[in-house]
Amino acid sequence: MHAYRTHHCAELTAADVGKTVRLSGWVHRVRDHGGILFIDLRDHFGMTQVLADPDSPAFAAVEKVRSEWVIRIDGEVKARDPELVNPKLPTGEIEVFIRDMEVLGAAEELPLPVFGDQEYPEETRLTYRFLDLRREKLHENIMLRSKVISSTRRRIEDVGFTEFQTPILTASSPEGARDFLVPSRLHPGKVYALPQAPQQFKQLIMVAGFDRYYQIAPCFRDEDPRADRSPGEFYQLDVEMSFVTQDDVFAAIEPVLIGLFEEFGEGKPVTQSFPRIPYAEAMKLYGSDKPDLRNPIKMADVSEHFRDGGFGVFAGILAKNPKAEIRAIPAPGGGSRAFCDRMDGWAKKEGGLPGLAYIFWREEGGAGPVAKNLGEERTEALRQQLGLKAGDAVFFCAGEPKAFEDAAGKARNIIGEELNLTDKDRFEFAWIVDFPMYEWDDENKKVDFSHNPFSMPQGGLEALEGMDPLDIRAWQYDVTCNGFEIVSGGIRNHMPEIMFKAFEIAGYPKSEVEARFGGMVNAFRYGAPPHGGCAAGIDRIVMLLAGEHTLREVIMFPKNQRAEDLMMQAPAEPLPQQLRELGLRYLPKE
To answer: Could you tell me whether strands 446-449 and 393-399 are parallel, antiparallel, or unpaired per DSSP bridges?
Structure first.
């Protein structure tokens, strides 16, 4: 007989009744039913009920075990009485009568329970993550993650991609976040950077003549954490293709995503043909470049109803600023003063807005201060434009769109949630396309890249030389799903003269581009194919499939909100010897 087990804890069925077996696992819980001791024995695969009564030679030993002890038992498989069968368990038809038991690993008093779904402070959960991972839901999430990655590899290879590994120790790159730097012992005063993404390397792979590359790539960014972003490090499905247009990339990636979400989405409907929404349209209709399309609300420009009208505040805003708009957020079913006042309060406290003006409709017409001042005729025209009726409402944001769009998008989401308009049981995808190549950096008073600096501008060199930089669009695109960006990519700039000009507009002289990206620029001088690709966030995809709200629930060993690993106590102070070897010393923080 094997030293630890003949079967795992989800394997035994009624067909095994009468067999002598050996099981090993964790004591999930112990129950005393009138002198008979029942143990739910758990391992990676599942659970088996084992028991001992006073006639068992192992009874005295079984009495001593506690939750989360690791034990080995030998025993006889018996059929449960029909009324005691548990149809929820694969092993629910049987139980094992213990003949012998060995304690393989005793457990001290637990800092958090493994049984059940009790809520515990994040600090405790992350400090004792090895215990937290024993909990059923978290264990399932981690297994789901593994299955999703395995399925992703199969699907992407089935459409002609080959996996290659790229370096971890590399050079700094302007990907939009701070680099993690690694001092070099062999080259004092110089550093490596951990890759924010394998961007340059995957482009070099295309220049080297490999046609379709992919990698489940670790990425490192020294940026502030948030619920949909893991602090410090994350994994992405990194993809690049040669001799492709934007349509070719879409055609390759869309079926992979559809297949993953159909395979692991528990039967929820999945978008079969992703709509393409230009960035400007997404901001106008949804107030976000990652709209949740499960919510049917679309915002609208209603400025003309207020221009030179009776509602003086909005009329004044439009008169003073030619860039100003009045944006409407319809709220079907939200036509009560209580709901409207609640949204107005949210805008003032959390939305970063001075408030949300509103109109709500009764059978006799529009109600509220805005309707009263705007007048019956304009209020009715507004209602007809938005397709609203009695019992509905509309909220308004006013000013330059870039100042209120983010808050308006959040208000749209809250209205959809509060009024039960958002369908939670589906996966709604879209491509967001035509991103602006540049944006205005108000802090540094300069034009800067708005997305990926290595993307090809639409119109090429002619656009860079002849257009206002803020009007140039890039061959950049994202995939959004249920309000999250899960894929980002672009068609790459593979021509040195276009690259130099693109970086020059963002304030990078040719000498700096040569110094920072010399390897890639030099490669482009020797025959670079047109190429493009994208990267899909593995962590976010699994989070959506698992129905979780934070990435920490789908990452095996996550860091906390301060980017600390509480279990391994990292980051930690380096030893003096390590600093001496690297020729480093720390300055006091100002």
So the answer is: unpaired
